[in-house]
Amino acid sequence: MTLSAYELREWERLQERKAAALSKRARTFLPPQARDRLASLGEKARGAPGADKVAAAYGGAAKGLGKAVGGTASRTVSERRVIGQYRRAGHDIAGLDEIRELDLRVLDEVARHNLVRYGHALSAAATGLGSAAVVTGGEVLASAGTIAGAGAGAAPGIGTVAGAMVADTAMMLGLATRTVAATALYYGYHPSDPEEELFVMSVIALGMSTGTSAKTAAYAELSQLTQLLVRNAPWAKLNEKVLTKIAQNFAAKFSQQLPKRKLGQFVPIAGMAVGAGLSYMLIDRIAVSARDAYRERLLIEKSDGDLTDGPNYGDADLAQDDAAIGVMELLREEDALPTPTPSDFEEQPDN
Q: Please, which residues have CB within 8 angstroms of residue 57's CB and are 6 or more apart in sequence?
């Protein structure tokens, strides 16, 4: 399929943005002195009586809630409504597959990216404000010694904090999933299909990544997954049981990374504003990552493979960074990657 002038121009812009993202140093929301103080306060809270049990409960609950809320979020995006919007814009389509046959300019106009982006980001800010209020309040109690020495059973401050963090994680993962799922529909993809759920997770992982090494790993994994999907690779081992386990492990890793991204919530009073701001920024980054990822994938498909998604990352770049959530690694752990087909080998040049 021949790409339009608009599509070729947007492809170049996508590659320029990716290169800029990989060369940009991670921005620090807080000065080093403030981050050191936050880390100290966090350590004090984790050392309070009962904190170890709370941490274990938080990890388990976040893992379960993350899968439940994430799955529910993707199902709350209406395919019928998206198709209706295209029809009202004058395009007689019957399903999502026909959306991908339209010019990218049309998709960009109907998608109304800013509404998806800022609507979900503002919801995240409200969620972050509420959880930060509880977290900072609990931190004040812990650092002031109100619950010190009283034993695990008399630590309502820490328990309340853990509950707020579990709720915040579930809500943030739900918003992240819904943001990506909405974008997927506007660009003609079914986010509830098993292999598409993997792509949704990879996009969220990219939006979560900070720093060059983490972004490189996230881009590399998304590139691998894109190529598998473009080639219609057979996902024979990706049954419901395996996908559920992968999704749960992804949610658990998300729950481990989210507090690191939102360390500012541990600052009394100021943490409320910081928590809201960081929640907003996280969902905003995920929304931008989703738009770029689906537009790039669409153009690769429309070019019949003539376009390739960015640089050759190389094996060294695929090493997982501590700050990256590796979806491909989760697939490998479950032995769920597609088996290469004869056509995959036929495409390799002869030596």
A: 162, 166
Six token digits for residue 105:
């300019």
Question: Which amino acid would we find at residue 239?
Answer: N
139 in Cβ contact with 266 (< 8 Å): yes
Question: Which residues have CB under 8 Å from 324's CB, separation 6+?
Answer: 205, 208, 209, 213, 214, 217, 218
pLDDT, tens digit, for every residue of 74-100? 666 788 889 999 999 999 999 999 999
Q: Would you give the distance in Å from CA 143 to the centre of its chain?
A: 32
Q: CA-CA distance, 137 to 126, in Å (whole number)?
A: 17
**Which two tokens mark 72?**
């529910």
Is residue 221 within 8 Å of residue 318, measured between CB atoms? yes
Distances in Å between the Cα of 30 and the Cα atoms of 129, 274, 275, 323 are 17, 9, 12, 18
pTM of the model: 0.76
Angle, CA of 42, 176 and 333, to the nearest 5°: 80
Residue positions counted in the chain = 351
Q: Are 262 and 278 in contact (CB under 8 A)?
A: yes
Give residue-wise pLDDT tens across range 265-286. 444 444 555 566 677 788 888 9
The candidate with the shortest Cα–Cα distance to 347, out of 317, 316, 308, 295, is 308
Hey, what amino acid is at 305? G
User: Three-state SS for 219?
Assistant: helix
